UniProtKB/TrEMBL annotation:
<keyword id="KW-0812">Transmembrane</keyword>
<keyword id="KW-0997">Cell inner membrane</keyword>
<keyword id="KW-1133">Transmembrane helix</keyword>
<comment type="similarity">
    <text>Belongs to the binding-protein-dependent transport system permease family.</text>
</comment>
<feature type="transmembrane region" description="Helical">
    <location>
        <begin position="119"/>
        <end position="152"/>
    </location>
</feature>
<dbReference type="InterPro" id="IPR000515">
    <property type="entry name" value="MetI-like"/>
</dbReference>
<keyword id="KW-0472">Membrane</keyword>
<protein>
    <submittedName>
        <fullName>ABC transporter permease subunit</fullName>
    </submittedName>
</protein>
<feature type="domain" description="ABC transmembrane type-1">
    <location>
        <begin position="81"/>
        <end position="296"/>
    </location>
</feature>
<dbReference type="Pfam" id="PF00528">
    <property type="entry name" value="BPD_transp_1"/>
</dbReference>
<feature type="transmembrane region" description="Helical">
    <location>
        <begin position="172"/>
        <end position="193"/>
    </location>
</feature>
<dbReference type="InterPro" id="IPR035906">
    <property type="entry name" value="MetI-like_sf"/>
</dbReference>
<feature type="transmembrane region" description="Helical">
    <location>
        <begin position="80"/>
        <end position="107"/>
    </location>
</feature>
<keyword id="KW-1003">Cell membrane</keyword>
<keyword id="KW-0813">Transport</keyword>
<feature type="transmembrane region" description="Helical">
    <location>
        <begin position="278"/>
        <end position="297"/>
    </location>
</feature>
<feature type="transmembrane region" description="Helical">
    <location>
        <begin position="214"/>
        <end position="236"/>
    </location>
</feature>
């Protein structure tokens, strides 16, 4: 009967241990720049906003107070939040629907075709096309003296502002915001469309299912979490936008970011800096809730389409 020999454990020399630890150390070193970026531009500003929102002005003796939070209940601030949420929701829904249709057209094209490369490259640029440049483009096009406005008035006797100057109100801002929401939707929703496998549709057709049945029972439920998540991302993008509205709206502060600017820079109402931080804290809470829902939907999307 052969003798049983116990297995000898592999020896771990110092060189082997160091070889295994070295990649982990290099990984940590590679994360340091990103960690510093997060601390400097995310964590520290958030702490400044939170502390300032619950802090009294130095002129009032400092200390903790709830007066800044109570200011969020004023009629002007509530109207600004309602307007911002309405603007963000309207531009997000319109941008999501039109962007999803454009993304579907791109997804059905050749993967390496010229059309897909042109559309995706254009969307990557237009999604970042905002601020003063976008505001000037719309004002020069359909503003009070824009060339489209003047052309329609001179040649067709059509006054697009006969019912009021809507460009600086909710309909106009929704139109301007939709301009950069559509390309952003294409960028974030196209990967989900690429995850739909052609074999699923072929299987549905082989079982006698129609196109409507495929999208209602297979494609639609699979893409629904990705579509809703992308819509939430568009909402957060519009809710936090500042430069475009600041350049377009010269009077008043209809949205929360402009309210924050007024609280921080106003020369009429002094000592409102911490009220501005309380407004910023309200925006942080809204965006945090939206991004939490977005993360949940993305997790479900990756489970089905990953």
């Amino acid at each position: 009967m052969p003798e049983l020999v116990a297995p000898v454990p592999l020896s771990t020399s110092e060189g082997g241990t160091g070889a295994r630890r070295r990649p982990k150390l290099l990984d940590l070193l590679a994360v340091i720049p990103f960690g510093a970026y997060v601390v400097i531009f995310l964590i520290i500003p958030t702490l400044v906003v939170v502390i300032g929102a619950f802090g009294a002005n130095p002129e009032d003796g400092g200390g903790a107070t709830l007066e800044n939070i109570k200011a969020l209940g004023s009629r002007q601030v509530v109207d600004a939040f309602v307007f911002s949420i309405s603007l963000s929701a309207a531009s997000a829904l319109i941008g999501a629907v039109l962007g999803a249709l454009l993304a579907y057209a791109v997804a059905t094209a050749k993967p390496d075709g010229l059309l897909r490369r042109i559309v995706t490259s254009a969307c990557a640029v237009l999604a970042q096309f905002g601020g003063v440049t976008l505001a000037f483009a719309f004002y020069a096009t359909i503003g009070l003296t824009g060339f489209v406005t003047v052309y329609l008035a001179d040649h067709f006797d059509v006054n697009i502002f006969s019912g009021g100057v809507w460009l600086f109100e909710l309909p106009g801002l929704t139109l301007v915001y939709t301009y950069f929401q559509i390309p952003l939707m294409v960028i974030v929703f196209l990967p989900a469309l690429d995850g739909i496998r052609p074999q699923w549709r072929e299987a549905a057709e082989s079982l006698g299912g129609s196109t409507w049945q495929y999208w209602r029972l297979v494609g639609g439920p699979l893409l629904a979490p990705a579509f809703l998540g992308s819509t939430l991302l568009l909402f957060a993008n519009a809710f936090s936008a500042y430069a475009t509205a600041a350049a377009l709206v010269s009077q008043g502060s209809p949205i929360v970011p402009l309210q924050i600017r007024g609280a921080l820079t106003s020369e009429v109402l002094l000592g409102q800096e911490n009220v501005g931080k309380a407004l910023a804290l309200g925006m942080v809470v809204v965006v945090a809730i939206v991004m939490w829902l977005y993360a949940l939907l993305q997790r479900r999307t990756s489970r089905w389409l990953g």
